[in-house]
Amino acid sequence: MPKKDADVIVIGGGIIGTSIAYQLSKRGKKALVIERNDLCSGTSGACDAYITPHTKKPGFHLALCLESLKLYANMEKELGDDLEYWQRGGFQPCEDELSFQLVSENAKALMAGGLEVKMMDIDEFRRHEPNMSPNLTGALHCPAACQVNPFKLVMSYARNLKKMGSGIMVNTEVRDLLWQDKKVAGVKTGKGDFYADYVVNATGSWGAQIAAMAGLEAPIEPRRGQIIVTEPTSTVINTTMQSGMYLVIKFHPEKITDETMKRLGSGFCIEQTGDGTILIGFTREFAGYDKSTTLEGIEYIVNKACTYLPCLRDMHVIRTFSGFRPYVVDGLPLIGPVEGIPGFIMAAGHEGDGVALSPITGKLVAEMIAGEPVSFNIDAFSPNRFIKQAQQA
Amino acid sequence: MRKIETDIAIIGAGSAGLCAAIQAAAAGAGVVVFDENQLPGGQLFKQIHKFFGSREHQAGVRGFEIGQQLLEDVKKSGAKVMLDSVVYGLFAENSLGVIAEDKYHYEVKAKKIILAAGAKENYMAFPGSTLPGVMGAGAAQTMINVNRVLPGKRIVMLGSGNVGLIVSYQLLQAGAQVAAVVEAAPTIGGYGVHAGKIRRAGVPILTSHTIKEVYGKEEVEGVVLAQLDEKWQMIPGTEQDIQADTLCLAVGLNPMTELAWMAGCQFTHIPALGGHVPLHDHNMETTKPGIYVAGDITGVEEASSAMEEGKLAGIAAAAALGCLSQEEAAAKKQEVLRRLDMLRTGLFGEKRKAAKEQQMADMAGWQALTAEKGGVK
Fold first, then answer.
1. Same-domain check for residues B128 and B107
2. Is the model's pLDDT at B41 over the cut of 90?
3. Do A294 and B91 touch (CB under 8 A)?
4. For A305-356, what is each residue's pLDDT tens digit?
5. What's the average model confidence in pLDDT over B206-221?
6. A316 to chain B: closest CA residue
7. Last residue of a domain, one of B203, B230, B249
8. Minimal Cα distance from B263: which residue of A?
9. Which residue ranges form the domains of chain A, and what is each CATH number?
10. Kind of pairing between the strands at A334-338 and B86-91
11. CATH number assigned to the domain comprising residue B289
12. B185 with B139, same domain?
């Protein structure tokens, strides 16, 4: 075996990859992050900032997010940086009776899963968020919801992992995996070959391509999300919000009469950042790796936003952008080793939950590699679920 | 979303955009011009000074008079002008997102697009630079010549290029005092004839000087200048305090290229033209087929060359749509190119000419490279 360049090579310099490398470094492992473009240049740099447990699937998914929240609570202190991390709570506003009913049902499941949430009628909701339209039907309130600036988090992970002796290579494209004795032993890049005991695939929306190099068919697809950004302004909203329509789209698509909404997979989400700009989304579209924004998407988001928050009508949009969410058909990420491919570990496919699940994903993968007991049962997220499916089919 | 379909959409109703519209509409193309301002004419209507050059460049005619003539010609040409209409994006398949005067959202589909968005003023940061009273020289010129409002009573101008010199003179004409024109370079930047006018009016032009800071409680109350050494560093002890309520910045312009970036046009960086400028060929067509550029967006020059570039883009776009025969178009283009060449002579013109040639050479290089790779995708 050629000389080892690190204990672990992590492919992907986003919010998942840098978290894993940071957690490994904390455990005395030398990690090498290999990133094709620049840190935070993919999905982590083209998303919003939510950490919202109430949008997770009750069950393993929610439980995993709650573990992540615990880690977030101490993150600024641990990393020694301002991450624009705020726990200000989150709402799931509803625009009609159907979504209010679905959100209410979901609220029960969330509470059963250990999350504190509360349904509010429109008057109570507007006491918290007075700028919201009185025409809404109410909202779910989740006090535990937080937000964080993903750029700051990734940069802080990077600073900390470098301090502990790990490394980062940017502008370095992985072209293939290297094998030794039928085990993944490193990566072949545009800047040479690098060897390690483990290779972690943390390439998010591009996860399927790297998995294919290992011979794994990972069902991860890029799903485009468009977001608009307003001029900075004084405080308009106090919390983050994601509309309850999302549940309707997910569970009762047949009840949606708005064709554009269906086609764009569009709902409403909003947050205000530290410098006062407002980020408004969203769409969920399958458009390959086409990162453009569209007239239809922007118009839909703007109109929808104004029905929820009428005061936005007087504001200027200064920018629009889109990013890819790594979509997996069952809505759960792929985390863990892969049967028959020793040395290769998946940590991709978080779709819209990458920010929320960054700390816990990093911790669990690091525990696995360092040989520590893994602190959360990750069977539900094992990439092997798709291998079994394929074998059965 | 409402829809507009047209042969040619032009963004910017300034000197370049209007000239493009006149040429294209006269050739028979359907033309719609969009401008975010409430009045057409771009910068022309604040230019109360006489233009230079030869008679065919309307030398001796004042800018706003040229503007009035252009508006009349546009009216006759049949081109439609939509004012107070913001083009906020250029999307796939030549479609434009527009918020129009009626506040409706339009999707504009055009066979050809001409970007003539102009340029914006450069800014400079120094202590006090965010105080009310610090403004672009172009903004001050709009206030006095279009809105008839004096920006202040006692003014310091930073920058002795033609904009700084002309606006200083016009501020004097409008009734303000100009305390000084400050220039960081060791020599005056603009034409001697403009510098002479303000010197004769008693305004000092302080070369090798810069702004150290601007001070004031609620707004500008004074400006502290300092002399620069040959390495452009402030010389301690040379500070002088000038009382003033306004500081105008005439420190250059940069092209408003956002839509060209959004469309995916290839760019090159040429400082003499104001920074990043889109590559274009002799027809003013960019690396994106069907998207043309004209005027300051292609590199900051002045109104006369903007008008000629506009004409060129209008002729080329109309010809590409089949509104003009090859021969007609070639003859018209040749005329324009000859006049453009004449404009780019003399001390200042030669520099611009060299820069424009660089831009064209970069375009040719790009074309050769893409041809090698099998053409434009």
1. no
2. no
3. yes
4. 999 999 999 999 999 999 999 999 999 999 999 999 999 999 999 998 999 9
5. 97
6. B88
7. B249
8. A292
9. 8-46+151-219+331-392 (3.50.50.60), 90-143+221-328 (3.30.9.10)
10. unpaired
11. 3.50.50.60
12. yes
Contact B92 A292 (CB under 8 A): yes
How far is the C-alpha of A219 from the C-alpha of A222, rounded, in Å?
10
pLDDT-derived band at A1 (thresholds 50, 70, 90) equals: low
Length of chain B: 377
Number of structural domains (chain B) is 2
φ and ψ at residue A184, rounded to 5 degrees: -70, 125
Contacts of A320 in chain B (CB under 8 A): 89
Nearest C-alpha in A relative to B97: A295
pLDDT in tens, A142-200: 999 999 999 999 999 999 999 999 999 999 999 999 999 999 999 999 999 999 999 99
Percent of chain A with pLDDT over 70: 99
Instruction: For residue B240, tell me if it sits in a domain.
Output: yes
Instruction: State residue A156's pLDDT score.
Output: 98
CB contact under 8 A, B107 and A294: no
A233 in B contact zone (CB under 8 Å): no
pTM over 0.95: no
- Given CB atoms, is B91 within the 8 Å cutoff of chain A? yes
Is residue B295 in a domain?
A: yes
Query: CB count, 10 Å around CB of A31?
Result: 29
Residue B377 has pLDDT above 60, yes or no: no
Shared domain for B114 and B127, answered yes or no, is no
Residues B132, B234 within the same domain: yes
Dist CA A370 CA A366 (whole Å): 6
Looking at the structure, do residues B107 and B194 belong to the same domain, yes or no?
A: no
**Apex CA A112: angle with CA A106 and CA A118, to 5°?**
55
The interface predicted TM-score (ipTM) is 0.71
B154 and B243 in contact (C-beta within 8 Å)? yes
Rounded distance between C-alpha atoms, residue B106 and residue B97, angstroms: 6
Q: Which residue of B has its CA nearest to A320?
A: B89
Higher pLDDT, B62 or B213: B213
**With a CB-CB cutoff of 8 Å, which residues 309-338 of chain A face chain B?**
317, 320
Q: Is B1 part of the contact surface with chain A (CB cutoff 8 Å)?
A: yes
Q: Which residue in this structure is represented by tokens 């990439």? A: A383
Residue A87, chain B, CB below 8 Å: the answer is: no
Mutate to test the interface with B, among A229, A264, A291, A295 (most CBs of B within 10 A): A295
Average pLDDT, chain A: 94
Contact B92 A298 (CB under 8 A): no
* Domain end (from B207, B228, B249): B249
Domain containing residue B48: 2-120+253-372
Residue A87 to residue A238: CA distance in whole angstroms? 11
Pair type for strands A50-51 and A146-147: antiparallel
What mean pLDDT value characterizes chain B?
A: 93
Residues of B in Cβ contact (< 8 Å) with A292? 91-92
